[in-house]
Amino acid sequence: MTRLHRKPWLLALPILAVYLASGACFIQSLKHGKYSSIRLRCTGEEVQGRPTISPPYQFYRLACEAAKEAGLEVEQYICNVGEAADKFTKSNEVVDRDAFVAAIKDAMFSQAFTLVLGGKNLGKTLVLKGATCAAENEVQANLTIIDIDMREDPNKPLFSAIFDRIDKKTPSFRKLLKKFAPKLASDFIQFLSRRKTTKTSDLVEQLLSPKVTLRGIISTLLEKQGNRTCLMVDEANLALPGLLDSDRAEATRALQFLVMLTKQEQLASVVLISSELAYPYRLQACGMNLQDVQKIVIANEVPKGEMLSLMVKRWNMSEDLAEQFFAYCGGNIDLCCRGVKNLHELEEDFDPFALIDCPGLPSCAADPDAKKHLRNLVKQGWSPVYDVEMDGAAKLIAGKNVGGIIPRRAIAFDRPKGIWDGKHEYALVPSGTLMRWKIAKELERVDSMGAGSATSQPSAVVWVCQLRSIGSGGFQPAGDAFPIDPVPQNIAYLKKAMKQENPNTVSCDAYQIDIYRRAQDGRWVKETRMSASLRKTNEADCYGFMLPAGAAGAT
């Protein structure tokens, strides 16, 4: 099939507290001190005008007109378009993702820690497979790619998945392992010599450590064969931090190991791929310093010209109907394809806003500060973020996958007009074209219910969550945040209010509770001044507390 050529654009996704932007329509590659000119596009410029956010919608009428012109019944016409769209999606054809592939290949060879983020169904896995194949077949590539898809077995530990993949991809792996055994043993002895431990249990744990074995294999591949290694993990969020809270301690150790391989020793490249827009925050909750993420590549949608060409020329859709789909769904091929199927089933009852779910949107629209950001997203396609650490409303929006935060430092093209006219270093953008208009619809609903509606935010609350120790002075949330209403006047009164609000959880005396706040580097810092006034919080950016050891409910 003939490939469609287009300039890439980037759909912004959320959140990197320090570097990241994550959530909607762009491809972007960030690098300390050096940036790749990969185009970024946030929703705003290419969508001319605001589509209708309430029924009746025009999809079925336009389909009827197109069917009449083609001499077909409307049901047959929509069915034909749907079959063509379905055939295209099953063909595994990439719609000119050359820049995306180039960014992934660059990450594979970079010996850096890279995150690849993008919404679901944007074709990330297809592009990754293409990039892997291209890199492995490149002449004199000298690269061993260990690519793992955690969806194949979400419950499998990461290192087990890595070794299983090596075994499957390299039939001679067992022979290779025996060949490298002397070198691995030597590396292991040197590794232990740097460890101050005399406990037999510690020695056995290190002897059996998959991290030590993997590091030895990577080191030996480089020394004996001249091959660099790339660890590429698709849907990495299933493994790091994992599905259960109990997985977090191991995830923390695994992340430390991966940072050591890349940033410290430059032995390998690590590429983690996730469809969760808030994935960087989850890594941060495991104690990872987001400055250790050296690159970020964010998956893109298709821009207007190429998307319309695809729908009109390949799917045989009328220009007017294609324009209507793009106005609502932007360049998301999967959304447009599903929209055609829904239109065939529902006809005049088709609602484009039912194509995506966003359960966190109402809570964002109910927060007064978040609501200000949301209004900007609808109006101009972006909203300024002056302090990415302290702007709890922006974090809330990003954490709910409603939008994403992008940094000024990103090399970007086709950005919303005026996005960097102010002094802000970060900007919030919607997580997609359809999300932008879904925000508009939710704001209209909230406004129509009036200031006294049940969806409005309570006058003032402070959010807190229990923490658990993860060793080395680090902490992570041990449960969901809960509100304290009204806001106490200081830290001392917050302890008393927590005791009164949750007596079953807070079983000790109020004065025994330790309160923590988030520092700008993501660490939990203990509040030492009991008279300190409380800062503004929300569910995503809250205070933490620890109960004394021995107290019921202590973690």
From TrEMBL:
Provenance organism: Effrenium voratum
Native organism taxonomy: Eukaryota, Sar, Alveolata, Dinophyceae, Suessiales
UniProt protein name: AAA+ ATPase domain-containing protein
InterPro entries noted in UniProt: Archaeal_ATPase_domain, P-loop_NTPase
Keywords, ordered alphabetically: Signal
Signal sequence residues: 1-23
